[in-house]
Design brief:
Strand content: 15-25%
Number of strands: 11
Strand order of the largest sheet: 3-2-1-4-5-6-10
Number of helices: 12
Number of domains: 1
Helix content: 25-40%
Shape: globular
CATH architecture: 3-Layer(aba) Sandwich
Order of helices and strands: EHEEHEHEHHEEHEHEHEHEHHH
CATH superfamily: NAD(P)-binding Rossmann-like Domain
Largest sheet: 7 strands, parallel
Radius of gyration: 21 Å
Amino acid sequence: MRILVIGGTRFIGRAVVERLLQMGHEVAVFHRGETNADFSREIKHIHGDRHQLASYKERFKQYGPQVVLDMFPMTEKDAIEVMNLFRGMTERVVAISSLDVYLAYGKLIEIEEGPIQHTPFDEEAPLRQRFYPYRHQMKEGDRLYDYDKILVERVVMGDDELPGTILRLPFVIGPHDQQHRLYPYLKRMIDQRPAILLSKGLSTWRSSRGYVENVAHAISLAVTDHRAKNRIYNVADREAFTEFEWVNKIKDVMNWSGEIVIVADEEYPPGFNPAQDMVADTNRIREEIGYKEIISPEESLRRTIEWELKSPPITHLQLDYETEDLILSRLR
């Protein structure tokens, strides 16, 4: 199968491309040319600007993709441009979305009112009622000002001529994670801090996560299996741990001798509403197209930590050890 990937040289995208190559497919990647990942087989590179996508129409036509995978549709406008461009050129568009479309996420970041949402939530669970979840933190023109995956999904799944598939992803960890999601905990352990503080609410908060190779496997199955046509899938690893369990697992891998200290929410605010768990039901993708994890939770965490230790963030991580020490001194 000939597959065009829009954005596929960094984190999740590069893992998807590698997985597709391992499955024997032909892959072309449209990207800016700033990052050229090493892959196990040769791929076709089409360098260009996402904001001028239509100007590359003839090159896309020449390649003739059977499926287009859009790794980074951030806004409604992004999705409209993709669907308009590839209508009549390809058989299907697969778009990457997020679990942040759910009403539960609106409760988590406290932009929605009402009762806490039940988890695990499946693909039919209520979606956010408020659009643009990060706009209140942004200035007009900022990258996330017009971000909303709900609007992306509506466009991709609402085209009568070009079928779509949507994949809703969780927090993703693994090698090449530009957000370094594990590093705040790792840094404290590297610095031999005596304790890591968790608020009471955060300690019991449970969230779906995904290891990058597992997520890439799920995406690759959805891209290459015709049964995924016109379907929406939650994607996440089967097990969802509490934050306390998660930090303990990191502690074991790091062989850190400190302790995890639970403190009052008012003493150490988590910055979101930890009463709202973010656990996704992933049975649909498992039952319909046969997804299952290819890397165990233990191995996933080990590989992620190994990469994080070799590739720490370039920018200095701001951790308030002074406040943490003050809280610890009051407790003791």
